Amino acid sequence: MRDMSGFSSAFERLGAALAAVVLQQQETLAEFLPREDWSADLTARSYASGGVTVRVSLLGSYAARERTWLWGWANPQFGDDHPAVAPTLRIRELGERLGIPEFTTPEIDLGWYTGPAGHGGELVAMAAGGVLGGGGYIGAGYDGGSAYLHVDDPQAPPAVWDPVPVPRLLMNAASLFPRDPRLTLARLLSHHRVPYRETDGVTEVPLPGGGTARAHFDALGRFLDWEAELSPAGLSPTGP
User: Fold this and answer.
1) Do the Cβ atoms of 132 and 188 come closer than 8 Å?
2) Is the CA virtual torsion 198, 200, 203, 206 positive or negative?
3) First to last CA, the chain
4) Is 0.85 surpassed by the pTM of this model?
5) What's the gap between Cα 59 and its chain centre?
6) For the residues of 11-46, what is the DSSP string, one character each?
7) For all residues of the chain together, what is the average pLDDT?
8) Are 28 and 194 in contact (CB under 8 A)?
9) Which residues make Cβ contacts (< 8 Å) with residue 31, sequence separation at least 6?
10) Cβ partners under 8 Å of residue 165, min gap 6
11) CA distance 187 to 149
12) How far is CA 238 from the centre of its chain?
């Protein structure tokens, strides 16, 4: 069941714009950062797992029993001036500028959420991580919930353009933020500086080496399918 009714329209639209970009970056982060026994020192802004240490900042935390999200700046243990929180304050500033209450409310009640994500806090973390960009975000579980850390470290590789996973990324992104799949695709393409052309119900994308991919959407803007046509010049010969 997809239920976004408890989120503001501004948050839903921002989430739709960022979702595919964030999902792709999360996959890239997962390949780089082992998810093994971990430790974190938020004062030092460090997170270590599987022999890899990265610089992080604190987005917020999700309390499983209360089903609430608490921003790092609203947590009395941290606050605006904490080294791990200060780099995230532009999320709140963006919320104030664009009228996104989820970014300005200190503690968000997410008990209403019944969508496909594990909990509503995942979507808040996705949107927040997307605003900051960088290497992605980490959900660090603790007794009673999870802290969400943003990876702000140049050694974490950025996702690179690859048209192959686009339909899967788009479908997964639209399941989480279904507001506007065409916007989701357009933002992913713009993020990678890939040109595209939108016509009625179709977004056309040039493929590396030649050819065109077409994303089809129905009259309500929902993603239908993705077809790719390689040009003869883009086909590589096989065999000796």
Assistant:
1) no
2) negative
3) 51
4) yes
5) 13
6) HHHHHHHHHHHHHHHHHHHHHHS--SSEEEETTTTE
7) 93
8) no
9) none
10) 24, 27
11) 23
12) 37
User: In the chain, what is the greatest distance between 2 CA atoms, to the nearest angstrom?
Assistant: 66
Closest alpha carbon to 137 in 127, 79, 238: 127
- pLDDT of 158-217, one tens digit each? 999 999 999 999 999 999 999 999 999 999 999 999 999 999 999 999 998 889 999 999
Query: Contact, 72 vs 82, CB < 8 A?
Result: yes
For the chain, the C-alpha Rg in angstroms (whole number) is: 19
Q: Report CA dihedral (236, 160, 61, 63) to the nearest 10 degrees.
A: -10
**How far, in Å, CA of 109 to CA of 113, rounded?**
9
Tokens read off for 184 = 């989701």
Structure tokens at 72: 């790092």
The two three-digit tokens of residue 63, written as one number: 């309390």
CA distance 86 to 84: 6
In whole angstroms, how far apart are CA 43 and each of 46, 53, 106, 151?
8, 14, 21, 15
